[in-house]
Every structure is written in structure tokens, then in C-alpha cells.
Write a structure and sequence with these properties.
Largest sheet: 4 strands, antiparallel
CATH architecture of the largest domain: Roll
Structural class: alpha+beta
Radius of gyration: 19 Å
Helix content: 10-25%
CATH class of the largest domain: Alpha Beta
CATH topology of the largest domain: C8orf32 fold
Distance between the termini: 12 Å
Strand content: 25-35%
Order of helices and strands: EEEEEEHHEHEHEEEEEEH
Strand order of the largest sheet: 3-6-1-14
Number of strands: 14
Oligomer: single chain
């Protein structure tokens, strides 16, 4: 797989940026090669955040800015593992370090939607079947539409407006899971169109979720509601607030973003 992205900004004064676009090293993919460039050329500080996500930090002078990341990843030619049959873990047996993934967060207001969650899914079988029922409902009842949400949109807003992008689908499904005591975390990364019809929209980053069932995390995707091939995971956290692709501290105006994720013809040959 070849994956990557390019951002352009107009910076009107000195600013600091943090960038999360590099694939994690603990997922199903394997990073083979990578390159990173900025125009103008800038020194880069790298660190790993509290969720294990690789982050780049740079100080940017005033003027136009271009950030570009490009990588080759080896990805298994197999779909996500089916977790629909995995059992739900009683709260008293959930590992202590994971309990915070059952609590409300900035965009996933599970306390506010607890009554709705139990009304919709209380009669479903606990475990993977319940998570799949949540994904089915979100996929069938929320309309995918660009431009319908912003940086302040929460799961409560998505449920009310019944529309959003993949980030919003993931937030609502995570919220319903947490409301029903299922640990769930927000995930985003690159998702190529392998073995599926190519949509008319330009390639973008994708968001999905992971839930703790049995003794491990399982991938569920309420936006696509399908087990997909080729996921390249970038970040994990409580919600998108923890894993923003790019965060600016200072006067920087976003101009454009391009994302690519596809089979690399040279590597495949």
C-alpha cells in the first residue's frame, strides 16, 4: 500500500503545529519506507503521546507552508477479523486501565445518550452482536454528507441532525457502546478502496472504532459497516480530540488537504 497526505497552510505569524499522519507500529500493517518533507524546511521534534500515537511537532514561521508525508506499508490481504461473536466483559472484569474507555469524553457524551442507547439496543444480545446492532443502526440512520459537521459537533448533535462524516459515525457508535458499558475507542487512519466500489468523492482519512470484547480489541466500522481490507491505522484515543491529524497553536489558516491510499503498483509487482 502507498499511503500519505499533503497539507497547505497560510501562516500569518509564528506558530507551533503537531501532526499525526504516520502509521502506528502496533497494528496489522508494517511500515516499509516513509518520507516526510516541509516547505520551507523546518526542524521537527517527534514524540509518542499517552495513547502510543507517533506525533511530529514543528515551529512554523510566517508565510506559506506545505507538509507532505508519503509511505509504503505492507498490509495483509485479508479483511478485519469478525468480532460479532465475541462476548461482552462485565464491568468488574474490564482491565482497570481500560475503564476510562467506558466514560464520556469531549465528543462522545455517553451519559447524555445512555437512555437512548438502552432504549434502542437493550434487547440485543450483549457482546459483539450488540456492537454490530449499534453499527447497523448508525449506518442505516445517519446520512453521510460532507460539510454537515465541524470541530464542535458531538455525538448528541449527530443523533439529532442524522447526518455527518465518518468521524461523526464513529463518535456516535462509540458513545452508544460506552453507554452500554462496552469499552470503545476512536480510531482513524488510511482506508483504501480494495475489493469495494470506488466512491466518487476524493480520498480522505477514515475513522472507525475499536471495542474491547473478551480479552482483546476488535475493529468495527459504522460508516462502511463492512469488514474491509487494507486499513492502515494512524491514531487511537477517546475521540477525535485526542487524535487530531493537525493541531495549530498560533495563527495558521488551513488551505488544502490531499490524501492517498492505494495499492502501490511497483511494490505489488
Amino acid at each position: 500500500m502507498r499511503v500519505g497526505c499533503e497539507f497547505t497552510y497560510d501562516v500569518s505569524g509564528p506558530a507551533t503545529m503537531t501532526v499525526q499522519v504516520r502509521p502506528r507500529s502496533d497494528a496489522r500493517h508494517q511500515l516499509v519506507t516513509e518520507s516526510w518533507s516541509t516547505s520551507p524546511r523546518l526542524p521537527i521534534d517527534e514524540y509518542v503521546d499517552i495513547y502510543g500515537n507517533p506525533v511530529k511537532r514543528l515551529v512554523v514561521p510566517a508565510g506559506p507552508l506545505e507538509l507532505r508525508y508519503d509511505a509504503i506499508c505492507a498490509v495483509p490481504d485479508e479483511a478485519d477479523t469478525d468480532g460479532s461473536g465475541a462476548p461482552q466483559v462485565p464491568v468488574e472484569l474490564i482491565p482497570g486501565e481500560l475503564l476510562h474507555f467506558t466514560l464520556p469524553s469531549r465528543y462522545c457524551l455517553s451519559d447524555e445518550l445512555m437512555g437512548t442507547a438502552w432504549e434502542l439496543f437493550g434487547q440485543t444480545q450483549p457482546g459483539g452482536m450488540r456492537v454490530q446492532a449499534i453499527c447497523d443502526w448508525v449506518h442505516d440512520n445517519i446520512k453521510f454528507k460532507y460539510g454537515t459537521s465541524n470541530a464542535r459537533t458531538t455525538a448528541v448533535d449527530v443523533l439529532r441532525d442524522r447526518q455527518g462524516v465518518c468521524r461523526d459515525f464513529a463518535h456516535l457508535a462509540v458513545t452508544f457502546c460506552r453507554a452500554m458499558n462496552i469499552p470503545a475507542r476512536y480510531v482513524f487512519g488510511y482506508l483504501p478502496d480494495i475489493y469495494v466500489p470506488v466512491p466518487p468523492e476524493p480520498m480522505d482519512f477514515a475513522a472507525w472504532m475499536e471495542v474491547w470484547l473478551g480479552d482483546r480489541w476488535w475493529t468495527f466500522d459504522p460508516r462502511n459497516n463492512a469488514r474491509r481490507v487494507g486499513r492502515v491505522l494512524i491514531g487511537r484515543g477517546r475521540d477525535a480530540h485526542d487524535v487530531a491529524m493537525l493541531t495549530t497553536f498560533g495563527p495558521a489558516e488551513f488551505r488544502s488537504m490531499t490524501v492517498w491510499a492505494d495499492i502501490d503498483k511497483a511494490e505489488a509487482a
